[in-house]
Design a protein that fits this description.
Shape: globular
Strand content: 15-25%
Low-confidence stretches: none
Mean pLDDT: 96
Bound molecules: flavin-adenine dinucleotide, NADP nicotinamide-adenine-dinucleotide phosphate
CATH topology of the largest domain: FAD/NAD(P)-binding domain
Helix content: 25-40%
CATH class of the largest domain: Alpha Beta
Distance between the termini: 27 Å
Protein backbone atom coordinates (compact mmCIF):
# COMPACT_ATOMS: atom_id res chain seq x y z
CA UNK A 1 0.00 0.00 0.00
CA UNK A 2 1.26 3.48 -0.83
CA UNK A 3 1.57 5.82 2.12
CA UNK A 4 1.97 9.57 1.82
CA UNK A 5 4.06 11.11 4.57
CA UNK A 6 4.52 14.86 4.61
CA UNK A 7 7.22 16.54 6.68
CA UNK A 8 8.34 20.10 5.88
CA UNK A 9 11.53 18.84 4.28
CA UNK A 10 12.61 15.53 2.80
CA UNK A 11 16.30 14.73 2.86
CA UNK A 12 17.91 11.98 0.79
CA UNK A 13 21.03 10.51 2.40
CA UNK A 14 22.20 9.99 6.00
CA UNK A 15 25.89 10.81 5.62
CA UNK A 16 27.38 13.84 7.38
CA UNK A 17 25.34 16.23 5.22
CA UNK A 18 21.95 14.60 5.71
CA UNK A 19 22.49 14.08 9.43
CA UNK A 20 23.39 17.71 10.00
CA UNK A 21 20.53 18.93 7.79
CA UNK A 22 18.03 16.95 9.88
CA UNK A 23 19.46 18.27 13.14
CA UNK A 24 19.56 21.88 11.97
CA UNK A 25 16.05 21.85 10.53
CA UNK A 26 14.72 20.52 13.80
CA UNK A 27 16.53 23.25 15.69
CA UNK A 28 14.96 25.86 13.40
CA UNK A 29 11.53 24.38 14.17
CA UNK A 30 10.83 22.33 11.04
CA UNK A 31 9.98 18.68 10.60
CA UNK A 32 12.26 16.62 8.38
CA UNK A 33 12.68 13.02 7.35
CA UNK A 34 15.72 11.31 5.86
CA UNK A 35 15.45 8.50 3.33
CA UNK A 36 18.65 6.44 3.27
CA UNK A 37 19.54 3.44 1.10
CA UNK A 38 21.93 1.99 3.70
CA UNK A 39 20.97 0.31 6.94
CA UNK A 40 22.56 2.92 9.19
CA UNK A 41 24.08 6.39 9.27
CA UNK A 42 27.57 7.36 8.08
CA UNK A 43 27.27 7.51 4.26
CA UNK A 44 30.78 7.14 2.80
CA UNK A 45 32.05 5.62 6.04
CA UNK A 46 29.15 3.17 6.21
CA UNK A 47 29.75 1.81 2.69
CA UNK A 48 33.55 1.98 2.22
CA UNK A 49 34.57 -0.54 4.91
CA UNK A 50 37.56 -2.01 3.10
CA UNK A 51 40.71 -2.76 5.11
CA UNK A 52 42.86 0.35 5.30
CA UNK A 53 39.99 2.80 4.65
CA UNK A 54 40.94 6.07 6.26
CA UNK A 55 40.48 9.79 5.87
CA UNK A 56 43.20 11.91 4.24
CA UNK A 57 42.31 14.94 6.34
CA UNK A 58 43.30 15.11 9.99
CA UNK A 59 40.60 14.08 12.44
CA UNK A 60 40.52 17.40 14.26
CA UNK A 61 39.70 19.08 10.93
CA UNK A 62 37.46 16.37 9.48
CA UNK A 63 34.74 16.62 12.13
CA UNK A 64 31.61 18.66 12.75
CA UNK A 65 32.14 22.17 14.07
CA UNK A 66 28.51 23.15 14.62
CA UNK A 67 28.22 22.11 18.25
CA UNK A 68 30.79 23.13 20.84
CA UNK A 69 29.77 20.41 23.32
CA UNK A 70 30.06 17.75 20.62
CA UNK A 71 33.57 18.75 19.64
CA UNK A 72 34.66 18.95 23.28
CA UNK A 73 33.24 15.58 24.32
CA UNK A 74 34.51 13.56 21.33
CA UNK A 75 38.17 12.55 21.46
CA UNK A 76 39.93 11.42 18.29
CA UNK A 77 42.58 8.75 18.72
CA UNK A 78 44.55 8.97 15.46
CA UNK A 79 45.93 11.74 13.30
CA UNK A 80 44.08 10.39 10.23
CA UNK A 81 40.87 8.70 11.43
CA UNK A 82 40.09 5.19 10.27
CA UNK A 83 36.76 4.25 8.72
CA UNK A 84 35.87 2.45 11.97
CA UNK A 85 36.51 5.53 14.08
CA UNK A 86 34.56 7.75 11.66
CA UNK A 87 31.65 5.34 11.74
CA UNK A 88 31.73 5.29 15.55
CA UNK A 89 31.64 9.10 15.45
CA UNK A 90 28.62 9.01 13.09
CA UNK A 91 26.84 6.66 15.52
CA UNK A 92 27.70 8.93 18.43
CA UNK A 93 26.25 11.96 16.60
CA UNK A 94 23.09 10.03 15.65
CA UNK A 95 22.56 9.00 19.26
CA UNK A 96 23.49 12.33 20.79
CA UNK A 97 20.95 14.22 18.67
CA UNK A 98 18.43 11.37 18.53
CA UNK A 99 18.53 11.37 14.73
CA UNK A 100 17.58 7.79 13.87
CA UNK A 101 13.89 8.24 14.77
CA UNK A 102 13.54 10.50 11.71
CA UNK A 103 15.52 8.33 9.31
CA UNK A 104 14.04 5.58 7.19
CA UNK A 105 16.87 3.14 6.48
CA UNK A 106 17.06 0.57 3.68
CA UNK A 107 15.07 3.07 1.65
CA UNK A 108 16.39 3.70 -1.84
CA UNK A 109 14.86 6.72 -3.56
CA UNK A 110 14.20 5.93 -7.20
CA UNK A 111 12.09 8.89 -8.35
CA UNK A 112 11.58 12.52 -7.41
CA UNK A 113 8.75 14.46 -9.04
CA UNK A 114 7.95 18.14 -8.69
CA UNK A 115 4.25 19.02 -8.64
CA UNK A 116 4.08 22.66 -9.81
CA UNK A 117 0.39 23.02 -8.95
CA UNK A 118 0.63 21.94 -5.35
CA UNK A 119 4.26 22.97 -5.04
CA UNK A 120 5.72 19.85 -3.50
CA UNK A 121 8.15 17.09 -4.28
CA UNK A 122 7.09 13.46 -4.20
CA UNK A 123 9.86 10.96 -3.65
CA UNK A 124 9.18 7.34 -4.56
CA UNK A 125 11.20 4.46 -3.17
CA UNK A 126 12.07 1.06 -4.54
CA UNK A 127 9.60 -0.45 -2.06
CA UNK A 128 6.77 1.50 -3.67
CA UNK A 129 6.30 4.07 -0.92
CA UNK A 130 5.74 7.76 -1.67
CA UNK A 131 6.84 10.65 0.49
CA UNK A 132 5.97 14.30 -0.15
CA UNK A 133 7.22 17.64 1.10
CA UNK A 134 7.48 21.21 -0.18
CA UNK A 135 11.30 21.08 -0.02
CA UNK A 136 13.78 18.39 -0.85
CA UNK A 137 17.46 18.31 0.07
CA UNK A 138 19.61 15.94 -1.94
CA UNK A 139 22.38 14.97 0.49
CA UNK A 140 23.23 12.04 -1.75
CA UNK A 141 27.02 12.46 -1.60
CA UNK A 142 29.69 13.30 -4.20
CA UNK A 143 31.26 9.83 -4.13
CA UNK A 144 28.39 7.46 -3.41
CA UNK A 145 27.55 6.09 -6.88
CA UNK A 146 30.10 3.38 -7.70
CA UNK A 147 31.22 3.46 -11.32
CA UNK A 148 30.50 0.42 -13.41
CA UNK A 149 33.90 -1.30 -13.80
CA UNK A 150 33.33 -1.75 -17.57
CA UNK A 151 35.15 -5.08 -17.64
CA UNK A 152 33.54 -7.89 -19.57
CA UNK A 153 33.11 -11.39 -18.17
CA UNK A 154 32.84 -10.49 -14.46
CA UNK A 155 29.71 -12.65 -14.16
CA UNK A 156 31.59 -15.70 -15.39
CA UNK A 157 34.20 -15.51 -12.59
CA UNK A 158 33.92 -18.48 -10.20
CA UNK A 159 35.64 -16.77 -7.25
CA UNK A 160 34.42 -13.80 -5.23
CA UNK A 161 34.24 -10.20 -6.44
CA UNK A 162 34.54 -7.47 -3.81
CA UNK A 163 34.07 -3.75 -4.36
CA UNK A 164 35.81 -1.26 -2.05
CA UNK A 165 32.72 0.97 -2.22
CA UNK A 166 30.40 -1.69 -0.80
CA UNK A 167 32.67 -3.92 1.26
CA UNK A 168 31.18 -6.75 3.32
CA UNK A 169 31.73 -6.57 7.07
CA UNK A 170 34.69 -8.43 8.52
CA UNK A 171 36.46 -9.41 5.30
CA UNK A 172 40.12 -8.67 5.89
CA UNK A 173 41.91 -12.02 5.89
CA UNK A 174 43.10 -13.24 2.48
CA UNK A 175 45.29 -16.11 3.73
CA UNK A 176 45.83 -18.85 1.14
CA UNK A 177 44.19 -16.69 -1.51
CA UNK A 178 45.39 -15.31 -4.81
CA UNK A 179 43.91 -11.84 -5.14
CA UNK A 180 43.75 -9.30 -7.97
CA UNK A 181 43.07 -5.63 -7.22
CA UNK A 182 41.92 -3.52 -10.15
CA UNK A 183 42.40 0.20 -9.64
CA UNK A 184 45.14 2.31 -8.08
CA UNK A 185 43.34 5.50 -7.01
CA UNK A 186 43.00 6.48 -3.34
CA UNK A 187 40.93 3.37 -2.47
CA UNK A 188 43.32 0.97 -4.21
CA UNK A 189 46.31 2.64 -2.57
CA UNK A 190 44.77 2.08 0.86
CA UNK A 191 43.51 -1.48 0.39
CA UNK A 192 46.54 -2.92 -1.46
CA UNK A 193 49.04 -2.85 1.45
CA UNK A 194 46.43 -4.43 3.74
CA UNK A 195 45.58 -7.29 1.39
CA UNK A 196 49.28 -7.89 0.72
CA UNK A 197 49.81 -8.64 4.42
CA UNK A 198 47.81 -11.89 4.26
CA UNK A 199 47.35 -12.89 0.60
CA UNK A 200 49.37 -15.74 -0.83
CA UNK A 201 49.70 -13.79 -4.08
CA UNK A 202 48.52 -10.28 -4.91
CA UNK A 203 48.32 -8.91 -8.45
CA UNK A 204 47.86 -5.15 -8.68
CA UNK A 205 46.35 -4.18 -12.01
CA UNK A 206 47.21 -0.57 -12.72
CA UNK A 207 45.99 1.51 -15.65
CA UNK A 208 46.86 5.02 -14.44
CA UNK A 209 49.43 5.44 -11.68
CA UNK A 210 48.72 7.81 -8.76
CA UNK A 211 51.05 10.12 -6.91
CA UNK A 212 51.12 9.33 -3.20
CA UNK A 213 52.91 10.69 -0.14
CA UNK A 214 53.55 8.77 3.08
CA UNK A 215 50.73 9.64 5.51
CA UNK A 216 52.78 9.35 8.69
CA UNK A 217 49.62 8.39 10.50
CA UNK A 218 50.02 7.91 14.24
CA UNK A 219 48.11 7.99 17.51
CA UNK A 220 47.32 11.51 18.71
CA UNK A 221 49.06 12.61 21.89
CA UNK A 222 46.96 13.88 24.77
CA UNK A 223 48.53 17.36 24.62
CA UNK A 224 47.73 17.61 20.88
CA UNK A 225 44.11 16.75 21.60
CA UNK A 226 43.93 19.27 24.43
CA UNK A 227 45.43 22.00 22.23
CA UNK A 228 43.04 21.25 19.37
CA UNK A 229 40.05 21.36 21.71
CA UNK A 230 41.23 24.62 23.18
CA UNK A 231 41.81 26.15 19.75
CA UNK A 232 38.73 24.80 17.97
CA UNK A 233 37.02 28.20 17.57
CA UNK A 234 40.06 29.74 15.82
CA UNK A 235 40.83 26.58 13.84
CA UNK A 236 37.29 26.29 12.53
CA UNK A 237 37.07 29.96 11.58
CA UNK A 238 40.39 29.82 9.77
CA UNK A 239 39.27 26.69 7.90
CA UNK A 240 36.00 28.31 6.80
CA UNK A 241 37.83 31.30 5.32
CA UNK A 242 40.69 29.30 3.81
CA UNK A 243 41.23 28.11 0.24
CA UNK A 244 40.57 24.41 0.85
CA UNK A 245 38.77 24.21 4.17
CA UNK A 246 41.99 23.66 6.08
CA UNK A 247 43.97 26.25 7.96
CA UNK A 248 47.26 25.75 6.11
CA UNK A 249 50.04 28.34 6.27
CA UNK A 250 50.74 29.91 2.87
CA UNK A 251 54.35 30.72 1.99
CA UNK A 252 53.26 33.04 -0.82
CA UNK A 253 56.17 31.89 -2.98
CA UNK A 254 56.32 30.86 -6.63
CA UNK A 255 58.28 27.65 -7.26
CA UNK A 256 60.75 29.85 -9.12
CA UNK A 257 61.23 32.42 -6.35
CA UNK A 258 63.78 30.02 -4.89
CA UNK A 259 66.72 28.09 -6.33
CA UNK A 260 66.37 24.35 -6.90
CA UNK A 261 68.14 23.34 -3.70
CA UNK A 262 65.95 25.54 -1.51
CA UNK A 263 62.84 24.43 -3.40
CA UNK A 264 63.63 20.79 -2.69
CA UNK A 265 64.25 21.57 0.97
CA UNK A 266 60.81 23.16 1.16
CA UNK A 267 59.20 20.19 -0.61
CA UNK A 268 61.03 17.85 1.77
CA UNK A 269 59.75 19.77 4.79
CA UNK A 270 56.13 19.44 3.63
CA UNK A 271 56.57 15.87 2.35
CA UNK A 272 57.86 14.81 5.77
CA UNK A 273 54.60 16.03 7.34
CA UNK A 274 52.43 13.73 5.21
CA UNK A 275 50.04 16.57 4.40
CA UNK A 276 48.63 16.27 0.86
CA UNK A 277 46.69 19.54 0.73
CA UNK A 278 49.70 21.45 1.99
CA UNK A 279 51.97 19.67 -0.47
CA UNK A 280 49.85 20.58 -3.50
CA UNK A 281 49.89 24.21 -2.40
CA UNK A 282 53.55 24.38 -1.40
CA UNK A 283 54.10 27.03 -4.07
CA UNK A 284 51.40 29.39 -5.28
CA UNK A 285 51.83 28.50 -8.97
CA UNK A 286 51.95 24.72 -8.59
CA UNK A 287 48.43 24.19 -9.90
CA UNK A 288 48.50 26.91 -12.55
CA UNK A 289 51.94 26.71 -14.15
CA UNK A 290 53.08 23.45 -15.71
CA UNK A 291 56.77 24.17 -15.14
CA UNK A 292 56.14 24.85 -11.43
CA UNK A 293 53.99 21.73 -11.23
CA UNK A 294 56.76 19.71 -12.83
CA UNK A 295 59.12 20.58 -9.97
CA UNK A 296 56.71 18.97 -7.49
CA UNK A 297 56.15 15.98 -9.78
CA UNK A 298 59.88 15.38 -10.10
CA UNK A 299 60.34 15.61 -6.35
CA UNK A 300 57.70 12.94 -5.70
CA UNK A 301 58.97 10.77 -8.59
CA UNK A 302 62.37 10.77 -6.87
CA UNK A 303 60.73 9.54 -3.68
CA UNK A 304 58.92 6.73 -5.51
CA UNK A 305 62.26 5.66 -6.97
CA UNK A 306 63.71 5.50 -3.45
CA UNK A 307 60.76 3.60 -2.00
CA UNK A 308 60.60 0.83 -4.64
CA UNK A 309 63.50 -1.62 -4.97
CA UNK A 310 62.97 -2.69 -8.58
CA UNK A 311 63.65 0.22 -10.98
CA UNK A 312 61.23 -1.04 -13.66
CA UNK A 313 58.41 -1.33 -11.09
CA UNK A 314 59.25 2.12 -9.72
CA UNK A 315 59.06 3.57 -13.21
CA UNK A 316 55.69 1.94 -13.89
CA UNK A 317 54.38 3.28 -10.56
CA UNK A 318 55.42 6.84 -11.46
CA UNK A 319 52.68 8.84 -13.19
CA UNK A 320 53.64 10.43 -16.48
CA UNK A 321 50.41 11.46 -18.17
CA UNK A 322 49.04 14.31 -16.03
CA UNK A 323 50.23 17.17 -13.80
CA UNK A 324 50.63 16.19 -10.16
CA UNK A 325 47.51 16.81 -8.01
CA UNK A 326 45.17 17.27 -10.97
CA UNK A 327 43.99 13.83 -9.87
CA UNK A 328 43.59 13.34 -6.12
CA UNK A 329 47.01 13.41 -4.47
CA UNK A 330 46.96 10.32 -2.24
CA UNK A 331 48.53 9.56 1.09
CA UNK A 332 49.50 6.05 2.02
CA UNK A 333 50.92 3.71 4.60
CA UNK A 334 53.59 1.58 2.90
CA UNK A 335 51.95 1.62 -0.53
CA UNK A 336 55.12 1.72 -2.64
CA UNK A 337 57.02 -0.53 -0.20
CA UNK A 338 54.33 -3.16 -0.72
CA UNK A 339 55.76 -3.75 -4.20
CA UNK A 340 59.02 -4.87 -2.57
CA UNK A 341 57.23 -7.92 -1.13
CA UNK A 342 57.74 -11.24 -2.88
CA UNK A 343 53.98 -11.98 -2.93
CA UNK A 344 53.05 -8.76 -4.79
CA UNK A 345 53.26 -8.16 -8.53
CA UNK A 346 52.38 -5.01 -10.46
CA UNK A 347 50.59 -5.59 -13.77
CA UNK A 348 50.89 -2.54 -16.00
CA UNK A 349 47.67 -2.43 -17.98
CA UNK A 350 49.06 0.25 -20.29
CA UNK A 351 51.39 -2.32 -21.82
CA UNK A 352 49.11 -5.35 -21.29
CA UNK A 353 45.42 -4.28 -21.07
CA UNK A 354 42.65 -6.40 -19.57
CA UNK A 355 40.87 -8.42 -22.21
CA UNK A 356 38.18 -9.95 -19.98
CA UNK A 357 37.46 -11.75 -16.76
CA UNK A 358 37.24 -15.52 -17.13
CA UNK A 359 35.97 -18.27 -14.84
CA UNK A 360 39.49 -18.67 -13.41
CA UNK A 361 40.63 -15.08 -13.18
CA UNK A 362 41.74 -12.19 -15.36
CA UNK A 363 42.84 -12.51 -18.96
CA UNK A 364 44.99 -9.66 -20.21
CA UNK A 365 46.06 -9.44 -23.83
CA UNK A 366 49.26 -11.36 -23.09
CA UNK A 367 48.65 -13.29 -19.87
CA UNK A 368 46.12 -15.17 -17.75
CA UNK A 369 46.13 -14.49 -13.98
CA UNK A 370 44.26 -17.17 -12.04
CA UNK A 371 42.87 -15.79 -8.77
CA UNK A 372 40.40 -16.59 -5.99
CA UNK A 373 39.22 -13.02 -5.38
CA UNK A 374 38.93 -9.91 -7.55
CA UNK A 375 38.81 -6.57 -5.74
CA UNK A 376 37.35 -3.67 -7.68
CA UNK A 377 38.72 -0.29 -6.61
CA UNK A 378 37.46 1.28 -9.80
CA UNK A 379 35.99 4.53 -8.50
CA UNK A 380 32.77 6.48 -8.76
CA UNK A 381 30.48 8.37 -11.08
CA UNK A 382 31.35 11.42 -9.03
CA UNK A 383 29.29 14.46 -7.99
CA UNK A 384 26.38 13.98 -10.38
CA UNK A 385 26.20 10.15 -10.34
CA UNK A 386 23.97 9.68 -7.30
CA UNK A 387 21.59 12.42 -8.53
CA UNK A 388 21.40 11.01 -12.04
CA UNK A 389 20.55 7.57 -10.70
CA UNK A 390 17.29 9.03 -9.39
CA UNK A 391 14.63 9.94 -11.97
CA UNK A 392 14.42 13.58 -10.92
CA UNK A 393 11.70 15.41 -12.83
CA UNK A 394 11.24 19.15 -12.41
CA UNK A 395 9.18 21.74 -14.27
CA UNK A 396 7.35 20.32 -17.31
CA UNK A 397 8.54 16.84 -16.39
CA UNK A 398 12.10 17.65 -17.43
CA UNK A 399 14.58 14.99 -16.32
CA UNK A 400 17.68 16.33 -14.54
CA UNK A 401 19.77 13.65 -16.23
CA UNK A 402 18.65 14.95 -19.64
CA UNK A 403 19.37 18.55 -18.71
CA UNK A 404 22.91 17.52 -17.73
CA UNK A 405 23.50 15.22 -20.73
CA UNK A 406 25.70 17.61 -22.74
CA UNK A 407 26.70 20.09 -20.07
CA UNK A 408 26.41 20.07 -16.28
CA UNK A 409 25.20 23.43 -14.98
CA UNK A 410 24.12 24.57 -11.55
CA UNK A 411 23.76 27.81 -9.65
CA UNK A 412 26.46 27.68 -6.95
CA UNK A 413 26.21 23.88 -6.73
CA UNK A 414 23.15 24.52 -4.58
CA UNK A 415 20.18 24.56 -6.97
CA UNK A 416 19.36 23.91 -10.63
CA UNK A 417 17.08 25.95 -12.88
CA UNK A 418 13.94 23.97 -13.69
CA UNK A 419 13.99 22.17 -10.33
CA UNK A 420 12.35 24.49 -7.77
CA UNK A 421 12.71 23.82 -4.04
CA UNK A 422 15.31 21.09 -4.60
CA UNK A 423 18.71 21.75 -3.01
CA UNK A 424 21.90 19.83 -3.67
CA UNK A 425 24.51 19.61 -0.89
CA UNK A 426 28.02 20.05 -2.33
CA UNK A 427 26.57 19.78 -5.81
CA UNK A 428 28.46 20.34 -9.09
CA UNK A 429 30.34 23.64 -9.39
CA UNK A 430 30.75 24.08 -5.64
CA UNK A 431 34.14 23.44 -3.95
CA UNK A 432 33.00 20.02 -2.64
CA UNK A 433 35.68 17.35 -3.10
CA UNK A 434 38.48 19.86 -3.72
CA UNK A 435 38.12 20.88 -0.10
CA UNK A 436 37.81 19.50 3.40
CA UNK A 437 34.33 18.16 2.80
CA UNK A 438 33.24 18.68 6.40
CA UNK A 439 33.71 22.43 6.07
CA UNK A 440 31.99 22.57 2.69
CA UNK A 441 29.00 20.46 3.60
CA UNK A 442 28.42 22.26 6.90
CA UNK A 443 28.38 25.54 4.99
CA UNK A 444 25.92 24.16 2.43
CA UNK A 445 23.61 22.72 5.05
CA UNK A 446 23.58 26.02 6.92
CA UNK A 447 22.97 28.02 3.73
CA UNK A 448 20.14 25.72 2.62
CA UNK A 449 18.38 25.50 5.98
CA UNK A 450 18.70 29.27 6.52
CA UNK A 451 17.19 29.71 3.06
CA UNK A 452 14.22 27.45 3.87
CA UNK A 453 13.72 29.36 7.12
CA UNK A 454 13.87 32.71 5.28
CA UNK A 455 11.32 31.57 2.69
CA UNK A 456 9.01 30.27 5.36
CA UNK A 457 9.17 33.48 7.39
CA UNK A 458 8.54 35.57 4.26
CA UNK A 459 5.74 33.21 3.19
CA UNK A 460 7.54 32.46 -0.05
CA UNK A 461 6.49 29.09 -1.42
CA UNK A 462 9.01 28.43 -4.19
CA UNK A 463 12.61 29.28 -4.98
CA UNK A 464 14.42 28.53 -8.21
CA UNK A 465 17.59 29.94 -9.76
CA UNK A 466 17.12 31.94 -12.93
CA UNK A 467 18.67 30.45 -16.04
CA UNK A 468 20.82 33.58 -16.43
CA UNK A 469 22.29 33.22 -12.93
CA UNK A 470 22.92 29.55 -13.50
CA UNK A 471 24.69 30.11 -16.82
CA UNK A 472 26.76 32.98 -15.40
CA UNK A 473 27.91 30.83 -12.48
CA UNK A 474 28.64 27.87 -14.72
CA UNK A 475 30.71 30.08 -17.01
CA UNK A 476 32.54 31.60 -14.06
CA UNK A 477 33.33 28.15 -12.60
CA UNK A 478 34.58 27.00 -15.99
CA UNK A 479 36.70 30.14 -16.49
CA UNK A 480 38.36 29.68 -13.10
CA UNK A 481 39.09 26.03 -13.89
CA UNK A 482 40.58 26.99 -17.27
CA UNK A 483 43.12 29.11 -15.43
CA UNK A 484 44.45 25.97 -13.70
CA UNK A 485 46.05 22.71 -14.77
CA UNK A 486 43.02 20.58 -13.79
CA UNK A 487 41.56 20.39 -17.32
CA UNK A 488 44.79 18.73 -18.52
CA UNK A 489 43.93 15.54 -16.68
CA UNK A 490 41.46 12.78 -17.56
CA UNK A 491 40.29 12.64 -13.95
CA UNK A 492 36.97 12.03 -12.28
CA UNK A 493 37.08 15.73 -11.30
CA UNK A 494 36.70 16.30 -15.05
CA UNK A 495 34.01 13.62 -15.44
CA UNK A 496 36.49 11.79 -17.66
CA UNK A 497 36.27 8.40 -15.92
CA UNK A 498 32.69 7.80 -17.02
CA UNK A 499 31.97 7.20 -20.66
CA UNK A 500 29.64 9.75 -22.21
CA UNK A 501 29.81 12.15 -19.24
CA UNK A 502 30.27 15.84 -20.02
CA UNK A 503 33.99 16.66 -19.81
CA UNK A 504 34.25 19.68 -17.51
CA UNK A 505 35.72 20.53 -14.13
CA UNK A 506 32.97 19.55 -11.67
CA UNK A 507 34.26 21.03 -8.41
CA UNK A 508 34.61 24.83 -8.16
CA UNK A 509 38.32 25.76 -8.01
CA UNK A 510 37.82 29.31 -6.72
CA UNK A 511 38.40 28.39 -3.06
CA UNK A 512 36.23 27.69 -0.03
CA UNK A 513 36.53 31.09 1.67
CA UNK A 514 35.89 33.04 -1.53
CA UNK A 515 32.93 30.81 -2.38
CA UNK A 516 31.49 31.21 1.12
CA UNK A 517 31.61 34.99 0.76
CA UNK A 518 29.86 34.88 -2.61
CA UNK A 519 27.05 32.59 -1.43
CA UNK A 520 26.55 34.49 1.81
CA UNK A 521 26.35 37.82 -0.04
CA UNK A 522 23.77 36.35 -2.42
CA UNK A 523 21.65 35.25 0.55
CA UNK A 524 22.06 38.60 2.30
CA UNK A 525 20.84 40.35 -0.87
CA UNK A 526 17.53 38.45 -0.64
CA UNK A 527 18.77 35.48 -2.72
CA UNK A 528 20.06 37.32 -5.76
CA UNK A 529 19.83 35.20 -8.91
CA UNK A 530 16.90 33.21 -7.56
CA UNK A 531 13.25 33.67 -8.41
CA UNK A 532 11.09 33.70 -5.30
CA UNK A 533 7.38 33.13 -5.65
CA UNK A 534 4.53 33.17 -3.15
CA UNK A 535 1.34 31.26 -3.74
CA UNK A 536 -1.71 31.64 -1.51
CA UNK A 537 -0.65 28.80 0.73
CA UNK A 538 2.52 28.89 2.81
CA UNK A 539 4.99 26.15 1.90
CA UNK A 540 5.82 25.00 5.39
CA UNK A 541 3.72 24.92 8.49
P1 LIG B 1 27.82 10.55 1.72
O1 LIG B 1 28.62 10.25 2.90
O2 LIG B 1 28.23 9.94 0.44
O3 LIG B 1 26.32 10.12 2.06
C1 LIG B 1 25.34 10.09 1.06
C2 LIG B 1 24.30 9.08 1.46
O4 LIG B 1 23.23 9.19 0.55
C3 LIG B 1 24.78 7.64 1.40
O5 LIG B 1 24.61 7.01 2.63
C4 LIG B 1 23.92 7.00 0.33
O6 LIG B 1 23.57 5.69 0.62
C5 LIG B 1 22.71 7.92 0.32
N1 LIG B 1 22.02 7.92 -0.97
C6 LIG B 1 22.51 8.27 -2.18
N2 LIG B 1 21.57 8.11 -3.13
C7 LIG B 1 20.47 7.67 -2.50
C8 LIG B 1 19.18 7.32 -2.94
N3 LIG B 1 18.82 7.38 -4.23
N4 LIG B 1 18.28 6.89 -2.03
C9 LIG B 1 18.61 6.81 -0.71
N5 LIG B 1 19.83 7.12 -0.25
C10 LIG B 1 20.75 7.54 -1.13
N6 LIG B 1 36.41 13.66 1.82
C11 LIG B 1 37.30 14.39 2.52
O7 LIG B 1 37.10 15.59 2.67
N7 LIG B 1 38.40 13.80 3.07
C12 LIG B 1 38.64 12.48 2.94
O8 LIG B 1 39.64 11.98 3.41
C13 LIG B 1 37.72 11.69 2.21
N8 LIG B 1 37.91 10.36 2.08
C14 LIG B 1 37.01 9.63 1.35
C15 LIG B 1 37.21 8.26 1.25
C16 LIG B 1 36.35 7.49 0.49
C17 LIG B 1 36.56 6.01 0.38
C18 LIG B 1 35.30 8.12 -0.22
C19 LIG B 1 34.39 7.32 -1.10
C20 LIG B 1 35.08 9.47 -0.08
C21 LIG B 1 35.93 10.24 0.72
N9 LIG B 1 35.73 11.60 0.90
C22 LIG B 1 36.61 12.34 1.64
C23 LIG B 1 34.53 12.26 0.37
C24 LIG B 1 33.32 11.92 1.30
O9 LIG B 1 32.35 11.42 0.47
C25 LIG B 1 32.90 13.16 2.08
O10 LIG B 1 33.97 13.55 2.92
C26 LIG B 1 31.67 12.98 2.98
O11 LIG B 1 31.68 11.78 3.68
C27 LIG B 1 30.41 13.16 2.19
O12 LIG B 1 29.31 13.18 3.06
P2 LIG B 1 27.84 13.33 2.46
O13 LIG B 1 26.92 13.22 3.59
O14 LIG B 1 27.78 14.53 1.61
O15 LIG B 1 27.70 12.10 1.45
P1 LIG C 1 39.54 6.58 -8.48
O1 LIG C 1 40.46 7.54 -7.91
O2 LIG C 1 38.65 7.00 -9.58
O3 LIG C 1 40.40 5.33 -8.93
C1 LIG C 1 39.84 4.31 -9.69
C2 LIG C 1 40.94 3.46 -10.25
O4 LIG C 1 40.39 2.36 -10.96
C3 LIG C 1 41.83 4.21 -11.24
O5 LIG C 1 43.14 3.78 -11.06
C4 LIG C 1 41.26 3.76 -12.58
O6 LIG C 1 42.16 3.84 -13.64
C5 LIG C 1 40.94 2.33 -12.27
N1 LIG C 1 39.96 1.75 -13.17
C6 LIG C 1 38.67 2.13 -13.32
N2 LIG C 1 38.08 1.34 -14.25
C7 LIG C 1 39.02 0.48 -14.69
C8 LIG C 1 39.04 -0.55 -15.66
N3 LIG C 1 37.95 -0.86 -16.35
N4 LIG C 1 40.19 -1.22 -15.87
C9 LIG C 1 41.29 -0.92 -15.18
N5 LIG C 1 41.35 0.06 -14.24
C10 LIG C 1 40.22 0.75 -14.01
O7 LIG C 1 38.57 5.95 -7.35
P2 LIG C 1 38.87 5.73 -5.80
O8 LIG C 1 40.20 5.18 -5.62
O9 LIG C 1 37.72 5.00 -5.23
O10 LIG C 1 38.88 7.20 -5.22
C11 LIG C 1 37.85 8.12 -5.56
C12 LIG C 1 37.95 9.31 -4.64
O11 LIG C 1 37.43 8.96 -3.34
C13 LIG C 1 39.35 9.78 -4.35
O12 LIG C 1 39.88 10.53 -5.39
C14 LIG C 1 39.16 10.54 -3.06
O13 LIG C 1 38.59 11.79 -3.27
C15 LIG C 1 38.15 9.66 -2.36
N6 LIG C 1 38.89 8.69 -1.52
C16 LIG C 1 39.69 9.19 -0.53
C17 LIG C 1 40.39 8.32 0.25
C18 LIG C 1 41.27 8.85 1.32
O14 LIG C 1 42.47 8.79 1.24
N7 LIG C 1 40.69 9.40 2.33
C19 LIG C 1 40.31 6.96 0.04
C20 LIG C 1 39.50 6.49 -0.97
C21 LIG C 1 38.78 7.38 -1.76
P3 LIG C 1 42.01 5.07 -14.70
O15 LIG C 1 42.32 6.28 -13.90
O16 LIG C 1 42.97 4.74 -15.76
O17 LIG C 1 40.58 5.05 -15.16
Amino acid sequence: MTTIKQPDVLIVGAGWAGMYALHRLRRLGYTALILEAGSDVGGTWYWNRYPGARCDIESTHYSYSFDEDLQQEWTWTERYPSQLELLAYAHHVAERFDLRKDIHFDTQVTNADWDPTNEYWTLATQDGENYSAPFCIMATGPLSAPKSPEISGLDSFSGSVLNTSNWPEDVSDFSKQRVAVIGTGSSGIQVIPEIAKTAEQLYVLQRTASYSLPAHNRPLKSDEIATAKEQYPELRNAARESFDGLAIPNRGLSAFDVVEEERDEIYQEVYAKGAPFEFQGTFTDQMTDIAANQTAAEFVAGKIEQRVDDPATAEALTPSTYPIATRRLCIDTDYYETFNRSNVKLIDLLSDPIDRVTEAGIKTEDHQYDVDTIVLATGFDAITGALNRIEIRGNNGQLLRDKWRDHISSYLGLMVNGFPNMFTVTGPLSPSVLSNMMVSLEHHVEWITDCIDYLSRKQVTTIEPTIEAELDWSKHANDVAEGTLFPQSDSWYMGANVEGKSRQMLPYVGGVGHYRQITNKIAAAGYRGFELHSSAQSAVR
